[in-house]
Amino acid sequence: MVKLADSRLAAMHRVLGNFRIHAQSISGSGALNRQYLEDLKRIRNRLAEANIAVSPVRSAGLRIMRKTNVARHFRSLVVR
Prior knowledge:
By secondary structure, the chain is mainly alpha-helical. It has helices spanning about 25-30, 35-50, 55-65, 70-80. Helix content is about 50%, strand content about 0%.
């Protein structure tokens, strides 16, 4: 189990990897959605307990920036 006290968190604005999600894959099928939401809630609770602020507005902004990043989408089409 990872302890937040021993961890360092940082924002990175680089692509660390590109993955294609297919409808028949575990990630694309939606089979893990419930587990993902439970994990997300657990992580956010641990961050809150450690007094680490998580801004929903900032999170949404970063998500929108990632989804509309033309270079990222171009790379996913070119890199195979």
